[in-house]
Amino acid sequence: MSDPDGDRVAITALTELRAALAAHGITLPSLDLHLPSYAASHRSPPLISLGNCNPATAQRLADALAAR
Q1: Exposed, middle or buried by CB within 10 Å (0-12, 13-18, 19+), for 46?
Q2: Of 28, 24, 7, 36, the residue nearest 67 (C-alpha)
Q3: Residue 47, pLDDT above cutoff 70
Q4: pLDDT score recorded for residue 67
Q5: In terms of Cα–Cα distance, which of 26, 36, 29, 34 is closest to 60?
Q6: Is residue 33 within 8 Å of residue 48, measured between CB atoms?
Q7: What is the reported pLDDT for 37?
Q8: CA 43 to CA 3: how far, in whole Å?
Q9: Which of 13, 18, 24, 43 has the smallest set of CB atoms within 10 Å of its CB?
Q10: By the 8 A CB rule, do 43 and 3 touch?
Q11: Is 38:3 a contact under the CB 8 Å cutoff?
Q12: How many C-beta atoms lie closer than 10 Å to residue 27's C-beta?
């Protein structure tokens, strides 16, 4: 079982990342909590799985990051 405080940290980060990407018109369909780390019994927050994307999405992500 995971730690509720760590879960909140991860879920908040996931929600904010999803919103920030959406503000740039970027959607990563498999962006989610990494289920094995979410279900694990340790006190660190679960990992966030960025997942796979097509080359066009990868380029948009690179462009958005480079613009900063």
Answers
A1: buried
A2: 24
A3: yes
A4: 87
A5: 26
A6: yes
A7: 84
A8: 5
A9: 43
A10: yes
A11: no
A12: 12
Nearest one of 31, 22, 29, 28 to 49, comparing CA atoms: 31
Tell me which residue has tokens 């990407």.
21
Residue position matching structure tokens 């079982």: 1
Alpha-carbon separation of residue 3 from 6, 12, 33, 47, 54 (angstroms): 5, 14, 14, 13, 33
37 contacts: CB under 8 Å, gap ≥ 6: 2, 44, 46, 47
Q: Which helix (H) or strand (E) holds 53?
A: none
